[in-house]
Amino acid sequence: MVDAITTPAATATTSPAAPGGGFSNGGAGADFQTFLTMLTAQLKNQDPLSPMESTDFAIQLATFAGVEQQALGNKYLEQMAGQSGSGGIANWIGKDARTTAPVWFGDTALTLDVAPHNLAESVQLVTYDAKGQEVAREEIGPGQGQIDWLGRTEEGTKLPDGLYSFTVESWRGGEMIQKTQAGAYARIVEAQFGADGGRLVFQGGGSALASEVTALREPT
Q1: What is the DSSP code string of 44-56?
Q2: Is this model's pTM higher than 0.85 or not?
Q3: What is the CATH number of the domain that holds 67?
Q4: Residue 3 falls within a domain, yes or no?
Q5: Residue 10 domain-assigned?
Q6: 32-46, 111-125, 161-175: which has the minimum mean pLDDT?
Q7: Where is this region: Disordered (predicted)?
Q8: pLDDT digits (tens, 9 = 90+) for 106-147
Q9: In a domain? residue 6
Q10: What is the extent of the structural domain holding 70?
């Protein structure tokens, strides 16, 4: 069962991020206020004789809701991080953590959490290697939830053992309307403490700050 620190797996955005998972981890509150200001201004200034298309408006409203959820989620995670001193995250050792940081893939499938846009007609899972280079892309279809990633190319060849991260692209009408990071589960084997706060080390390799962990679950 996923522990109570679970937050939304992804943040809605209408502009594509840089390849290799170049997403910002902070500033969701500022993004929320900026989006609210921009949306209000757009509603005030749009031409009443040529109003915004209903589909575009629905996309913007869904984006607004996603940013709001992430802002609240980040605030909650900050509160958790403040309560998770050395004793707190040390208790996470042995659990599976969900993170968007690169995680190790070997002989066992990875569990991913995907949350595409609810208006998407096509959803693609994009895989990046440790250098941030795209190495695989596959159609996964609409719908939110967990999927097992087997690490195969289009030809069915297994990708090399290594660290991988993931994004989910939502497409509609031939245009990408959202690009989000997909969280992957990895086993925590060590907790480290330094100037940047608590850091968790994962089985096989890879690590993430405690603030980058969005869910915990008991090993499956």
Answers
A1: HHS-TTSPPPHHH
A2: no
A3: 2.60.40.4070
A4: no
A5: no
A6: 32-46
A7: 1-24
A8: 999 999 999 999 999 999 999 999 999 999 999 999 889 999
A9: no
A10: 16-220
